[in-house]
């Protein structure tokens, strides 16, 4: 019973979504809209689960003085500050929430994102080695794309006498664009097509109840 | 010599981090500028598509990003909104990401003030709704059902510019500024492929390559995307095209130097790799 | 703004008008038909615009109401070429007029035209997709049957999945935890679902070996599912006592807030094995480089093409695209799942053949007319609206 009810729900919801794609006649569009609406409702109400879990885990950490418990009050205070300011004064412009959001959440998010620049540099330094011909090819195309994506590539190209007047004044950008449009796109498509097949197969496995390890236990 | 190279090869990554920081900060601090040639390409295509839309055409603009990608996507948004309002297009804004609504509002009210455009006549911000792709499907049948009021709680029926807008099909273009999911793929699949509304957009530089397939066009058929701004370069291209150089154009010189620095790192890495006998296999990179 | 620009435009417009009389755009060829491929209740009106520069101010669509009068059902800008009237009753005939407005007056009236809205049983623009789906499902179901019958099914070795046991074993030896990151998307994302399936397999191993399993998540629904999946795996392994629900916890929905949280966990807890499986965006390299800096064995997997290079550069093993979806079958070696994998591969071979034939036919079509017919057929098959 515990296994069959979820399997049945998966099967029915999955089949409704497949059928409503091919059959425009009622009741299928209505059922499809219904399933989609339910998802939106379930997903938005589930946010409370997340919040409760967050608070429970951190309160417990503080109470039991678990390792690194000192970080937990910061999390709880941060959460409550944003929550209370949002509920009390709203979230529109010129409210405390808006201020906190713009002055704290925005710069902190941007800081995390900008770490990427540093990690790209260190990962490139370590991983980009011309150890065989394929790696060398990758390295060469990486150089061309890096130069072609910023103005400096064309500027360097135009330093060569006659290059600016030639039929390809923006050769480096053109090469970079070509690499992106053709070899890169071919590779991306291959991965996308393969992944899409995986998506369809996984969905079918779940709809037909062949894949049930997400319900616990394989058989 | 070999010892020195080995030491360089095993350099603490924090040294790389410091050099990288300098490569970005110095050009920005010195306000280093570079000429910005814009050739034909996805940025130009988007510019041209928007430029040829007749006055009073309707554009649905979706702000599908959050503050973390603001540095890349906000300059794009500013340039696009300036171009659209400057060409008398009507903008209906919305967001598939919760924080996108306020980011969009910031741009719309800012640009609209500087161009003398009117809220509710030339633009309106409907705000955020959860649901992603499902929401877009909903917009295909009724926009009012999905957005009964705008961001400032003005009812749909009281907004003059929405009086003859009922579904997604009433728009001449959808522009999505997308930092991930839900974003460009959802709009292309639903708005372009299912409802036949042209879609254009902008995204971060890292995700741009995966959207190139959408730009390909067969004779006599619409491409799935009318144009794409990829990262800061795309934003800088657009700023150059509408002749309003801004933050993105300035950022391009910093990015140029940063790219050069990464290339120098790669070259040094390779020199030490070969000079020290290529014996130390790197751990990462294996499959 | 409109008024200002307009007044600025007036002299220019007058100048142009003086030079060449602006040619008015005419609305013509009005047609009405049942809106295709829907549940009915809608009529599609289409008209075309003649060449010219002076567009009408607006175009209104009127429908004959039951009492015989006409009511306005749509007002479109002068550049539009059609409208859809919705909320109608199936099987009843509706007639329409279209009025073209210029300078506050009705410049032209077209119609009446009429149509009967109806619902359709099969979406005509999607039957190709249906055929493809049936072929794919057919192959998969056939090989599942073969698998059930005990036929030996070979699948190539996937290094990243073979390493799962080693990675968990290493964590146990070192007395450090295993960190499982299921990506940043919600449960409606198929990669997250695939990740949950692998989480079950990984949890079964941590339950067996006895090393702690940490699962920070960024979506509430994923939290509930992860807790269920891990709990079931521990039950199945006979170690319900070792299951700790607090080790599976929610951090934040925010992308980089989540990345910061996970980075912090990596630095503080120093896991010996890190799994990064699911949908990742810009945070992929931030997580993978931090994981690498704490010396963990890292197994990553995603179907996001733009994030794969980062994982390949910074992780020990990377599951590329469909390998992520194959993981459950590979790890369980269950005949039914292996069969579905085999079916998927055969279907892929079939589609590769279709792609090659299509590309060849389209290319040959320039020299040899019949080849175009093949290309057109394949296009029809793969066209989806």
Kindly describe this structure.
Chain A has 219 residues and is mainly α. In chain A, 76% of the residues lie in helices and 0% in strands. Chain A has helices at 4-22, 28-45, 47-63, 71-89, 96-127, 133-148, 151-159, 171-181, 183-207. Chain A is extended, with a radius of gyration of 27 Å. Chain A starts with a helix and ends in a 12-residue tail after the last helix. Chain B has 287 residues and is an alpha/beta fold. In chain B, 46% of the residues lie in helices and 11% in strands. Chain B has helices at 2-9, 13-29, 42-52, 70-86, 100-115, 133-141, 143-146, 184-194, 231-241, 247-275, and strands at residues 58-64, 90-95, 123-128, 173-178, 199-203, 228-230. In chain B, helix 4 (70-86) links the parallel strand 1 and strand 2. Helix content of chain C is 47%, strand content 21%. Chain C is α/β, with parallel strands linked by helices. Chain C contains eleven helices and 13 strands. The interface between A and C is large, with 69 and 86 residues.
Mean pLDDT value of chain C: 86
**SS class of chain C:** alpha/beta
Tally of helical runs of chain A: 9
Q: Tell me the major beta sheet of chain A.
A: none
How much of the sequence lies in strands of chain C comes to 15-25%
Please tell me how large the radius of gyration of chain C is. Answer: 31 Å
List the defining traits of the structure above:
heterotrimer, A: 219 residues, mainly alpha, extended, B: 287 residues, alpha/beta, six-stranded parallel sheet, 6 strands, 11% strand, elongated, disordered C terminus
What's the structural blueprint in terms of helices and strands?
The complex is a heterotrimer of chains A (219), B (287) and C (385).
Chain A: H1 4-22, H2 28-45, H3 47-63, H4 71-89, H5 96-127, H6 133-148, H7 151-159, H8 171-181, H9 183-207
Chain B: H1 2-9, H2 13-29, H3 42-52, E1 58-64, H4 70-86, E2 90-95, H5 100-115, E3 123-128, H6 133-141, H7 143-146, E4 173-178, H8 184-194, E5 199-203, E6 228-230, H9 231-241, H10 247-275
Parallel strand pairs in B: 1-2, 1-4, 2-3, 4-5, 5-6
Helix pairs in contact in B: 1-10, 2-10, 3-9, 4-5, 4-9, 6-8, 9-10
Chain C: H1 2-19, E1 27-34, E2 43-49, E3 58-64, E4 70-77, E5 82-85, E6 94-102, E7 105-115, H2 127-148, H3 159-174, E8 178-181, H4 190-209, E9 213-217, H5 220-236, E10 248-250, H6 255-269, E11 273-277, H7 283-293, E12 297-302, H8 308-314, E13 317-320, H9 322-332, H10 335-364, H11 369-382
Parallel strand pairs in C: 8-9, 8-11, 9-10, 11-12, 12-13
Antiparallel strand pairs in C: 1-2, 2-5, 3-4, 3-6, 6-7
Helix pairs in contact in C: 2-10, 3-4, 4-5, 4-9, 6-7, 9-10, 10-11
């Amino acid at each position: 019973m515990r296994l069959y009810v979820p399997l049945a729900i998966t099967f029915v919801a999955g089949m409704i979504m497949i059928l409503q794609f091919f059959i425009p006649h009622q009741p299928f569009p209505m059922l499809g809209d219904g399933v989609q609406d339910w998802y939106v409702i379930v997903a938005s109400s589930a946010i409370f689960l997340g919040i409760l879990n967050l608070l429970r885990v951190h309160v417990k950490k503080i109470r039991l003085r678990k390792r690194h418990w000192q970080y937990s009050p910061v999390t709880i205070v941060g959460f409550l500050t944003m929550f209370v300011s949002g509920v009390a004064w709203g979230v529109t412009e010129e409210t405390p929430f808006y201020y906190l959001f713009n002055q704290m959440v925005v710069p902190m998010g941007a800081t995390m994102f900008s770490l990427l620049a540093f990690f790209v540099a260190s990962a490139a330094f370590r991983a980009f080695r011309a150890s065989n011909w394929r790696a060398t090819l990758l390295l060469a195309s990486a150089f061309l794309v890096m130069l072609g994506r910023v103005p400096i590539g064309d500027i360097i190209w135009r330093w060569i006498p006659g290059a600016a007047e030639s039929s390809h004044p923006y050769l480096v950008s053109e090469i970079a664009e070509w690499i992106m449009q053709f070899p890169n796109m071919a590779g991306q498509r291959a991965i996308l097509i393969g992944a899409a097949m995986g998506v369809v197969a996984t969905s079918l496995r779940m709809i037909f109840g062949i894949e049930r390890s997400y319900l616990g236990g394989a058989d | 010599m070999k010892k020195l190279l080995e030491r360089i090869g095993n350099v603490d990554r924090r040294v790389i981090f410091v050099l990288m920081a300098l490569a970005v900060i110095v050009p920005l601090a010195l306000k280093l500028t570079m000429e910005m040639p814009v050739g034909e390409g996805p940025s130009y295509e988007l510019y041209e598509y928007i430029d040829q839309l007749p006055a009073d055409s309707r554009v649905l603009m979706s702000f599908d990003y959050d503050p973390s990608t603001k540095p890349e996507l906000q300059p794009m948004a500013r340039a696009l909104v300036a171009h659209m309002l400057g060409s008398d297009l009507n903008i209906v804004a919305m967001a598939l990401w919760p924080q996108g609504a306020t980011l969009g509002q910031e741009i719309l009210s800012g640009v609209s003030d500087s161009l003398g455009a009117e809220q509710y006549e030339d633009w309106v911000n409907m705000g955020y709704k959860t649901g992603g792709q499902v929401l877009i499907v909903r917009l295909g049948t009724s926009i009012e059902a999905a957005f009964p009021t705008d961001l400032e709680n003005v009812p749909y029926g009281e907004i003059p510019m929405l009086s003859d807008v009922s579904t997604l099909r009433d728009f001449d273009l959808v522009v999505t500024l997308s930092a991930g999911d839900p974003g460009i793929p959802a709009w292309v699949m639903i708005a372009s492929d299912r409802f036949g509304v042209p879609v254009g957009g902008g995204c971060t530089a890292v995700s741009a390559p995966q959207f190139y397939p959408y730009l390909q066009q067969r004779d006599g058929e619409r491409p799935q995307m009318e144009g794409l701004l990829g990262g800061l370069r795309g934003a800088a291209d657009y700023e150059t095209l509408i002749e309003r150089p801004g933050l993105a154009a300035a950022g391009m010189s910093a990015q140029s130097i940063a790219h050069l620095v990464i290339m120098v790192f790669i070259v040094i890495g390779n020199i030490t790799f070969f000079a020290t006998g290529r014996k130390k296999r790197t751990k990462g990179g294996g499959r | 703004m409109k008024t200002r620009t307009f007044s600025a435009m007036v002299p220019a417009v007058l100048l142009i008008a003086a030079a060449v009389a602006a040619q008015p755009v005419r609305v013509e060829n009005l047609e009405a038909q049942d809106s295709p491929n829907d549940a009915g209740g809608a009529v599609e009106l289409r008209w075309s615009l003649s060449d010219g520069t002076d567009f009408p101010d607006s175009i209104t669509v009127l429908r004959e109401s039951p009492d015989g009068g006409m009511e306005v059902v749509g007002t479109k800008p002068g550049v539009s070429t059609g409208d859809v009237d919705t909320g109608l009753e199936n099987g009843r005939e509706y007639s329409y007029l279209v009025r073209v407005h210029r300078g506050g007056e009705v410049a032209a009236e077209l119609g009446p035209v009429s149509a009967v809205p109806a619902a359709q049983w099969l979406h005509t623009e999607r039957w190709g997709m249906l055929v493809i789906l049936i072929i794919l499902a057919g192959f998969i179901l056939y090989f599942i049957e073969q698998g059930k019958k005990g036929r030996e099914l070979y699948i190539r070795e996937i290094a990243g999945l073979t390493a799962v046991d080693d990675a968990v074993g290493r964590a146990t030896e070192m007395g450090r935890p295993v960190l499982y990151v299921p990506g940043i998307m919600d449960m409606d994302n198929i990669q997250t679902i695939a990740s949950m399936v692998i989480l079950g397999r990984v949890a079964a191993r941590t339950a067996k070996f006895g090393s702690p399993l940490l699962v920070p998540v960024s979506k509430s629904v994923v939290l509930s599912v992860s807790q269920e999946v891990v709990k079931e795996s521990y039950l199945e392994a006979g170690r319900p006592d070792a299951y700790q629900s607090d080790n599976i916890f929610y951090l934040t929905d925010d992308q980089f807030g989540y990345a910061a949280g996970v980075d912090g966990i990596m630095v503080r807890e120093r896991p010996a094995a890190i799994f990064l499986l699911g949908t990742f965006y810009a945070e992929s390299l931030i997580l993978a480089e931090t994981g690498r800096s704490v010396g963990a064995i890292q197994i990553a997997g995603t179907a996001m093409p733009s994030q794969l290079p980062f994982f390949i550069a910074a992780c020990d093993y990377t599951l590329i695209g469909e390998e992520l979806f194959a993981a459950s079958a590979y790890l369980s070696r269950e005949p039914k799942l292996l069969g579905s994998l085999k079916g998927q591969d055969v279907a892929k071979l079939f589609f590769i053949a279709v792609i090659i034939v299509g590309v060849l036919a389209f290319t040959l079509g320039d020299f040899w007319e019949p080849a175009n017919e093949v290309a057109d057929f394949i296009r029809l098959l793969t066209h989806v609206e």
